[in-house]
Amino acid sequence: MADDPQPGLPTTRPAGFPFTRYDGRRGAQWLVEAWAMLARERMPWIGLVLAYYVALALIESLPWIGAFLAPILKPVLSVGMLAAAWTQERGGRPQLRMLGRGFGANLWALVPLGVVLIAGVAIAIAATALVDGGKLLELLYSGAPVDADSAAAATSLRATLSDPAVELAMLFGGLCALPTILALWWAPALVVFQDAGALAALRASLRAALANWRPVLRYALLVFLLGGVVPSFITTLVTLIAPAPLYQLLASALLLPYVLIFVTVLHIADYVSYRDVFHAGE
After folding, report:
1. Spans of all domains in the chain
2. What is the pLDDT of residues 180-221, one digit of tens each?
3. CA 57 to CA 52: how far, in whole Å?
4. Which H/E stretch holds residue 148?
5. What does the alpha-carbon distance between residue 31 and residue 177 come to, in Å, rounded to a whole number?
6. This prediction's pTM
């Protein structure tokens, strides 16, 4: 577009974290570069990502505190991905021991990011009641009765999710969560690599993401296509060609490796996009 800022033009903000503003094409490049990094070190990356989710699952399984502790520690554990990508760019390899790097890297600035994640998501979910009168909240928090028939419960779930008011509420909740998502996107990297405080990192990440709304939007659309549309297409295709007894097995055999690779690319892209926006040309 004619009014697009030129790539490579640094934009300084009062927070003291200069960033670069790009045109929309850059959003696809972040995924391409992340895929290239994964292709060079497939097994180390996949092992690290699996360890990351296993660690989160173990933390979440802790009685009483697990559900709150897991999101609080999520930014801390994500530092392992950033460290692995940083190391790979300098000729090293991702290693499992990097998963704990966040506990020694400005921990007290990383933990508040997890608190912001909990608060932002909670506010976004609560806001859905303004649209659907609380139907989505009831679905999320009421749970099914112990003696409920599974078929009846599934029918009720489908009916609720197909309600236009609930669908609109989910969209509204996603929009409400967007500022939190953008503020947290590059915040852990700013804390680790630029010694930012939690508030400064959140502010800088949000400003840089809004200034780069074109590549961020293209990135989000590609993530939706690859993470939502493609798996749905694969599932539908398997349904049409596979016999009923083999449907779930074949679908899982195709989708699980795809999803694992896709999620790994997204983790690497967090670093690639941060480096591109905040350290262009280095």
Report:
1. 20-278
2. 999 999 999 999 999 999 999 999 999 999 999 999 999 999
3. 9
4. none
5. 23
6. 0.88
